[in-house]
Structure formats: C-alpha cells, structure tokens
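thought: fold this chain, then report.
action: predict
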Amino acid sequence: MGKFIWDKNLKVRLIGEGLFNLLFWMYYPFITVYFGEILGFQIAGLLMALPPLLSIIGSLFGGNFADSLGRRPVMLLGTFIQMLMFVMFALSTSPWIDYIAFIGIGLGSALYRPASSAMVADLVPERNLRQVFAAFMTVNNIGAVLGPVIGAIFFFHYRQELLWTCALVLFLYLLAIYYITYETLPNSKKELDLTSPLKHSFKERWNGYTIIFRDKIFMVYVVAGVFSLFPIMQLDLYLPVYIINNIPTQPLFTWNSNSLLLSSNEIYGWLVGLNGLLFVLFILPVTNWFKNWQERNIFILSSLLAGIGTFLVGINNNIWYLFFVTVIFTFGEIVRTPVTQSFVSHYAPEHARGQYLAADSLQNSLGKAMAPLTVFLASFTPPMGIFSLIVVFSIIGVLLYIKLFRMYSPKLKIMDED
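observation:
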C-alpha cells in the first residue's frame, strides 16, 4: 500500500482506536443484560432502541460539520464528549444516570465516526480503501477477542475502575489528536465554506442532507443495510439473553475424569471472543479473497450468512455446535465490513463525502434501533419465533440489494467519471 497511506494521522487513529476498543468490548456486550437485570428486559428492549435514534442526529451533524469545519475538530469534539460521559458513568449511583451516560457515549461516537472515516477516505487512494478499512477493523477487533471474556468479570465487579480507564484512554487519545494529527479536508471544500455566510450554515447543512435523502439509489442502499444488519446486531442484544436463559452449563473439554465447565455467561463470553478472534485472523485474508468480487454479490452473501447463521443458533445448545454457527454468522459480518465504507467512499462526491458517510451510518443506527425488538419480544415469544424473524429480515435485505444493483452499476459510474 505504500508509505503515503500510513501517514501519522492514520497511525494515531490506528493506535488510539485500537486501545479504546479493547476497553469498549469489556463493557458493551453486557449493557443489555445489565439494564435488563435492573429494569426488566421489556423496558431494556425499549431503552436500547433510543440511543441509536439519537445517534442519527449526532452522526448527521458530525458528517456535515466534518465537511464544513474539518475532520480534526469534529474528531476532537466527539472524543471529548465520550470522555465526559465515561466520567459521568463512573461517578453514577443510578441506573438512569448510567443510561443517560450511555446515550452520551453514543452521541459522541456518532459525531466522531463520519469525520474519522472521511479522513481515511481523504488520505487513501480508492484502490486501497478496502484494505485500509480492513486493517482498522482488524486492530479494532483485537479487543473483541479478549474484551468480553475479561469484561464478564470487570464490568460486573470492577465497573467503576473499568469506566475510569476508558475515560483516561480517551483523554490521552484527545491529546494525541490535538498535538499530532493535521487537517485533511479538501482545499476546494475549505474555499467553498469560507465564502458561505455563517447565518446560512444550518440551512446549507439541511439542504445537503435533503439532496442525499432524495438520492433513491443511496436510500435503497441504506434500507438494505438496515435489514441486513438486523441479524448481525443480535450478537450484543438477543443472543446474550437467549444464551444466558437457555444454554445450560456444560464442559468445554473433558479429559480423564476432569472437565472445564463453562456457565451460560461464560459460554456467551467465549462466543463473542470467537467472533472477535475470527475478525482479527480473517478480515484481511477475506478482504483479499473477495477483492475481485462484485459488491452486489458480497452484500448478498453477507446477508445470507448472517441471517442463516444466527437462525441456526436456536437449533441446538451444544457448545461446539454454537462455535460452528458463530463462525457462519461472523463470516457474514466480516465480508461486508470493508465493502460498506469503500462503497460509500467511491459513490459519494468528494465535496459531500463526510455527509454521505454520516448518512451511511443511518443503516447502523436504524438497525440498532430495530434490533432490540427481539429483546422486547423475548419475554412472550418462543426463541424459534425470534430466530425466524431474524432470518426473514436477512432475506428482505438480500432482495433489496438485488434491487439496488439493478439501479446502480459501479462500472458505469467509473466510466462516466473517466
């Protein structure tokens, strides 16, 4: 990929986001169970639907500010907000303050993400985007290997210490962004924004998004993503509820008369750890294996693997069978991850790249808002009913991707630009 790609901006992000994600995976997989045990799973299911909806606002503003104010200041603001919210979470003595802090962390992250992704797109040639995004995903998911296993102990027994550590890491990352990184906003966009009166800035931001929302091809892409991500997001929502309530304690290994017994909580931690390990080991190879595949076929394969793999979780409760189906639905997530950001990066016009990347996060935010429906239904719907709903969502996603690529051809777009 060459030295140009891995300049100091990308190195700072790679290290800072990697460290934070190690801590992130120590608490995030257990949030739904945490609120469910304190407030009840029906209430928790409803509460978990709100933060993604609020994050949509943060993401849309984050993308627009990234295109007007610059990538770096928006990244600083998003990081600062997350740091403050972790301090609030650490000091809290009420589950409702915990919930407000959790919402604030999501808002700060929503502001940060479009600017961060746009900075990568600014610095990396289009032909290398998949590989670079895959490299970031690899580093970020190293934490997903150890985080859930360690977090099963730390989040419930040393939560304050864990949250203070998250705040400290974000503070150090904030300093690194401020003192080391530089702005990457294209010069043409800077000149355009300097000529725009401040009083019209909000109107211009809104007009920019109305143009995106009238982009029929892009909106089909977003809706397809919402349905396709629904199964993938169950790893942190319905699967912990299902596994903890339905999977019995069982041996991982048996030798002579001894065995390594895992409780349902520990089994879930191992499954999430396996999910992260597969990301670390295979996202770069898989990205390389599928580099010549059309994006259409990758999106369809991803939706099918994620939906069918998650459905199969409900068929058997043997731990090794659960490891096997985890491999299936994880590969569904792996194959789509680098392609989503590269698709938007080459589809979006340069002057609105941050806005399109922010609008792209709608599929993630809306998917997260819909995904807790399974937790809400779990209290009065049998597991196979929930798993059937999950696979139906994935099939709808497949049909929408077929429709999308009948409307849009990347090859034609490249030819038109040439």
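thought: worth noting. The longest strand covers residues 250-255.
final: tokens above.
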